[in-house]
Amino acid sequence: MLENILLENSDEPYADILARNIYSFIRSGMEVETTRQLYKIIDKTLNFIEDKNRKDIVNKTAARVFQALRIEVNQEFEVLNEFVEKLPKILKPGGRVAILTFHSGEDRIVKKTFKEMKNSGVYEDVCRNVIRPTKEECHRNSRAKSTKMRWAIKAK
């Protein structure tokens, strides 16, 4: 289950070995009570990575693991699914919606739902290609790098 959470919620490339080692830690009678403990498990799990890139990879992996757990605990994908399903009910015919996503999982949900609703006639048009921020926008705001925008127009 943990492996699936890491894969689905953060596309974690080391999901299998991380899940095994976290479960092993817990089965040994220990508890993961702090983010520092979890970070140490991740660091120890990735000890096979060469020193040159290790710290950067461990930090990025830890960020993805924390993100995956946050998404699971807060049920963020379920909430987004509910939102995009209910959205057409509040849009007037011809109404437009634009949704910004910051995670590939969020973007997949929005893209799939918009496409399905266009095919069923709910939307008359949807964004075919994702809209990404320009280099200038990313330079002004580094957090914009992962942002994707998709739009839809409700059928009349």
Ranges with pLDDT <50 over ≥5 residues? Answer: none
Structural class designation = mainly alpha
- Beta-strand fraction estimate: 5-15%
Alpha-carbon Rg, integer? 19 Å
Helix content: 55-70%
Measure the end-to-end span. 43 Å
Shape: elongated
Number of strands: 3
How many DSSP H or I helices?
A: 7
N-to-C SSE series? HHHHHEHEHE
**Largest β-sheet summary:** 3 strands, antiparallel
Task: Please give a handful of descriptors for the protein shown.
mainly alpha; 3 strands; three-stranded antiparallel sheet; 156 residues; single chain
Plain-language structure description:
- The chain is mainly alpha-helical and 156 residues long.
- The protein has helices spanning 2-10, 15-27, 35-45, 51-74, 76-90, 104-119, 135-140, and strands at 96-101, 123-126, 148-154.
- Helix 1 packs antiparallel against helix 2 and helix 5 (76-90) runs parallel beside helix 6 (104-119).
Question: How would you concisely characterize the structure shown here?
Answer:
By secondary structure, the chain is mainly α. Helices cover about 60% and strands about 10% of the residues. The chain starts with a helix and ends with a strand.
